[in-house]
Specification:
By secondary structure, this protein is an alpha+beta fold. Helices cover 41% and strands 20% of the residues. The chain has helices at residues 2-21, 28-33, 35-43, 48-55, 64-73, 81-109, 155-170, 173-186, 191-216, 221-231, 252-264, 270-287, 302-310, 316-324, 389-395, 402-410, 450-459, 533-543, 580-588; strands at 111-112, 125-127, 135-139, 142-147, 246-247, 342-351, 354-363, 369-376, 381-387, 419-420, 427-433, 440-447, 476-482, 488-491, 494-498, 505-507, 512-514, 521-529, 552-561, 567-574, 591-592. The strands form five sheets. Strands 11, 12, 13, 16, 17, 18, 19 and 20 form an eight-stranded antiparallel sheet that branches. Helix 1 (2-21) packs across helix 9. The chain starts with a helix and ends in a 7-residue tail after the last strand. Mean pLDDT is 85; it is low at 294-298 and 330-338.
Amino acid sequence: MAETLITSSVIILMLCAIRILFKGRIRPTVQYGLWGIAAARLALPCFYPVIRWFGSLQSPWSIMNAAAPLAGLSEWIVLFLGTWIAGSILLFLWLSVVYIHMGKRLMKQRTPYEGPVPAWSAVPVYWAGDIPTPCYFVYFGKKGIYLPERLQNDPEAVRHVVVHEACHAGHRDHIWGWLRCVLLCCYWINPFVWLAGYLSKRDCELSCDETAVRRLGEAERFAYGRTLIAMAAGRRTPWNFLSTASDIGNGKKSMKERIWTLAHHPKTGPVTALVIAAAAIVLIVCTFTGKMGNGADSVPGMAEIVTLSELPKDQNLLEAIRKWWPEIPSEDKENETEAELNYVNQYPFSYRGETYRLLVSVLKEDGSLDYASVIREPTGEWLNIYQTPEAVEHYGMILAGGEETKEFFETHASMADYVTYRLPEGLTDSGYRADLGDGGGGSLFLTEDEDQKARLEELGRYVDRDSVPDAWLAAGGIIRWNAYYLNRRFDTGSLMETAIPWNHTSYWGELVSVEDCEVPALLEPLCHDLYTPSSLEEAEKRYGPIPEENQTSRMWYVFFARPDSDVMYAIYLNGDLYKKEDALKLARSVHFKEEAFTP
């Protein structure tokens, strides 16, 4: 958030500078269009996949290289996050009330305008009583140009006004007006955003004046200017730029600029256009990219990790790690325990907006490297770069090389890559986790129902979460396995039996072959033990008797498999929360992608 505040402020100040330096040498339409850079930067945090990509871009020209200290100072705003959010909500509610009040007023007092309208405009025109100034207003999709009745005896002014407001409609200025107001609500805490809202509204009118004169013809330029002067006499408020309506008046202060612009008729020459384009590109590069990492404050990235994985698997690896990242911390006397044989130091970093951790374990005894691994935070995927030769031999480990490491960073699986399905109402996906299954990955289903949340909380209240999979205490989920050991039995094309992939699991109902699925499917009601005898005894000593129904979790599992593939899927719902029919309906909604059964 601090980066958005800083970069958007720089953009706004630079656009203000361009506005001053190129006054009279740049077309109003171009001047107005430049505000799109500021709007895009302010709106960027709303588009997470986009900002993830931008977040991976670094450049020596980014202003964040120089503004890094300011980014730290501006984090104090987080302390007032509640005030910020409350202010945004109140401002949006106030704007909404003003919008509804204005819309109802115009709808109530409007009468059809019977005079001539431009053939190129399809927007209806109305008389609207004693409104302060003519305007183009869209009320819940109902578009209209509204004229004050005092103009009934001035047909020339009416013609100018109708053309001007029709140009607003052609520019879709009601959409840009709402965007301006929403961004002001989101960033009301930044005074530069208020400045941008005020100036962009003025430039909107300048752009519309230019288009209107082009529609009316050069012969009417000065007559149109006289109409503008007359419209400036309408009642105005200093906060008019907070309105989503587009009106021709826009206040006396901005009228001088508009008349001056009409008189000078500025055009954008080739040299000016080139300078403006270059300035816009530089501005985007400097504000849409992140700061470069260097020295002690740098963080590891993909290139360094790949280099590590390509080095010989010996103690020289520790020297390489120390070369790129902070020195391995010395012994922590305060937190030392006899059981700890090593220090595990964690270094967070990001790649393409995804968060990772480099784990470096050093043995206390002699300071040698124990292991070096990378974890992808959201999914829990683990990449082994180094393990001691003894560990590699004992556990049969395969360490990642350069190509495997590149593939690890560039490949991020999602269940949507393999299957799609229609969840029951009230359930949502929690996102893909590579370590969810035994040898595979998948997604958990989260419930929005408060009663179901309470039941799941009660079920797992005393369970050792480190030993019990999250999937056993969820409302449901889907798992993908890619393992040869998951034995299956088929009969005449139907899936009749599967091996249970977990320990401490048994059947609590009959197996049923499921018809009408895309691949052979089998319903298996499975019961997971949430406690071992020893852990149950310990929990009951501490918390008292645990009801028998809370000692296990019951699930409706539907397994999917094909005879020609080692890949298998299971989609499941909690048996305490859902019925058998719910699981069958969910299973029949599953659609498998082409890659679903490819290892």
